Amino acid sequence: MFSKLFYYVAQVLNVQLPEVFLVEDNKPADIQLANAIEKSELCPSFIVRHHLLQGKSEREIAFLSARRLTFMRPEYYLKMLLPTNTELKVVVLSAIVMVQPRFPVPPDMVQLVQQYLPEMQKRMPPQLLEQLGAVVARFIQAAPEINLAKWGHAVEATSHRAGFVVCGDLETAARMVSAEPVAMGGPQVKDKIKELVLYSISEEFFAVRAQMGLTIG
Known about the structure:
Largest sheet: 3 strands, mixed
Structural class: mainly alpha
Shape: globular
Helix content: 55-70%
């Protein structure tokens, strides 16, 4: 059942299906990222623990699968790869400095950026470096506020929405969200569930369900 659900969810979210490895151990995590390397290329994979499949309904597994696979989308991948705001900030600054060497880096971040930068340069294909330069130029010109905590909370909310859409049941989605640990300084469980409830009656939700060919019932 898990394999079919996982494949279905990947298709719905339009993400590349990662390699999946089933393991049996006592670790509490359900689905974890494992960065395998094949022929010097990064191959994101998922480790799924046996207990994930025990005692959970099809809807619950669909929610968990959608939540994790949401982070496989390129615009969200760093949230799963680098879960702390400090790591995210270092990577963002390193990417900027890679194409804008004179960009002012905060003093407390200089050493970390200097550590990350050579590794990123080593793995950045020339054609992508040019694209990065264009993106960074627009970013600096717009001079936005870099609020990675706010971005991270928004990505988490997006993954909850994806889980809700795929599992098709608000009660299940709320129960799965309630079981998640609360990050320090992050939204509380009641706020996350309130966001889901508001989304469940929004035009965006009905539009997504209609596009998927599903009815609300």
